[in-house]
Amino acid sequence: MRTTVGIIGGGPAGLLLARLLHRAGIGCVVLESRDRAYVERRQRAGILEQGTVDVLRECGAGGRLDREGLPHQGIELRFEGRGHRVDFPSATGGKSVMVYAQTEIVKDLIALQLEEPGGPPLLFEAEALAIEKPDSAAPVIRFRHEGREQTLSCDYVAGCDGFHGIARRAIPADRVRTFEHAYPYSWLGVLADVAPSCEELIYARHRRGFALHSMRSPHVSRLYLQVPGGTDPDDWSHERIWDELSTRFALDGDWTLERGPITATSVTPMRSFVQEPMRHGRLFLAGDAAHIVPPTGAKGLNLAVTDVITMARALIHHQETGSSELLDGYSRTCLRRVWQAERFSYFMTDTLHRRPDETPFEDRERIARLERIASSPTASAELAENYVGLPLS
Ligand code: APR
Ligand code: PHB
């Protein structure tokens, strides 16, 4: 097989890239190691920045998003038994976010790609095994599909294969630097068939730890609890989960957390990670393949989207003008934004969680950070600007 851009990974990054390239007349093939059902079931984050919504609409994937997505104009920060709203539009010139699950975006993009006549091939159960000669003019992806080893010859390779993929590791170790931070806690995520108890997301700091109230639809709530690293979700009965959530969200005034049947639980470790540079020869990394943020602030999916917008622009510019200027600047352009998202996610995580070894001083200092956001329009605007997404440079 041969194509212009060989895309490894059919997550949001790889699927959106395929869509953007196809619309510009650039050939591509997507290789996804898992089957379609698995990819469409995987539970991930659910907050889309304005820019993410805009690009999905522009590329024809906005239909269901506009019908079923829930526009949100702000969030609540809850601490010391009180709630404080951070308003987005007033602080950002009218921007807001959309609640729409990543799994739904993946379903929409897969359906578009498979249904469109002449759409780029999307191979499921096609596992990339190696990228050969990524720094040459003719890289080759070796992959296994339908029990056979095959090759895909490309002009460019897009490594969109997530944190555990092979693309990141195809760059020689002496050419990369990695930056990492591990957090001494995880999130226990809960999906429940119950109407959300709030209209906007609640980020709560409590002396027993962080809790987040999010949602998937008017009938499905998505909730998270800070738990110690290495927690087994089976150690948490559903009753214990609801009790703990109720405690951490408790307000001085009148407020009740509605309970309902829990349909899924999972534990996610928290990590910050960046690999630099994001390009080696004709191999370009995007999304989780190049960087991880902790989920507080919901930047992971949105960063993957801005990486692939930047990559598509660079490839289209090269096709139209012959200039490789944007391709050469790809890593630098992406990393500027990546580090801003790393900073914001680290700040949100560190401010809202309780470290097991936290001192009373550190506790008070974090509450002071939240008091500052609650009382200063400038501090609140700083949070809002980052939350809705910094402009694409
Ligand atoms: N060959 C082919 N596909 C692979 C391989 C491989 N060797 N290794 C991994 N993959 C596939 C995975 O099965 C997965 O479907 O690559 C895809 C990567 O998708 P994601 O992990 O969703 O990563 P990405 O597309 O970068 O999405 C951004 O950021 O914070 C997160 O929740 C956010 O998952 C979202 C991610
Ligand atoms: C989610 O809905 O899954 C979600 C929302 C906000 C976050 C993280 C996750 O900061």
Uncertain runs:
none
Helix/strand-derived category reads: alpha+beta
Task: Let me know the average pLDDT.
Answer: 97
**Biggest β-sheet strands, sense, barrel:** 8 strands, mixed
Determine the CATH superfamily of the largest domain: FAD/NAD(P)-binding domain
What is the topology?
Elements: E1 2-8, H1 12-23, E2 28-31, H2 36-41, E3 47-48, H3 50-58, H4 63-68, E4 70-72, E5 74-79, E6 82-87, H5 89-92, E7 97-99, H6 102-115, E8 122-123, E9 126-132, E10 140-145, E11 148-159, E12 177-192, E13 202-206, E14 209-217, E15 220-228, H7 238-249, E16 262-276, E17 279-280, E18 283-285, E19 291-292, H8 300-321, H9 325-328, H10 330-352, H11 360-375, H12 377-388
Parallel strand pairs: 1-2, 1-11, 2-8, 5-13, 11-18
Antiparallel strand pairs: 3-7, 4-7, 5-6, 9-10, 10-11, 12-15, 12-16, 13-14, 14-15, 16-19, 17-18
Helix pairs in contact: 1-6, 1-8, 8-10, 11-12
The structure holds adenosine-5-diphosphoribose and P-hydroxybenzoic acid.
Adenosine-5-diphosphoribose (APR) is lined by residues 8-14, 31-34, 39, 44-45, 102, 127-128, 160-162, 165-166, 287-289, 300-301, 304.
Condensed summary:
The chain is α+β, with helices and mostly antiparallel strands. Helix content is 36%, strand content 30%. The structure holds adenosine-5-diphosphoribose and P-hydroxybenzoic acid (PHB).
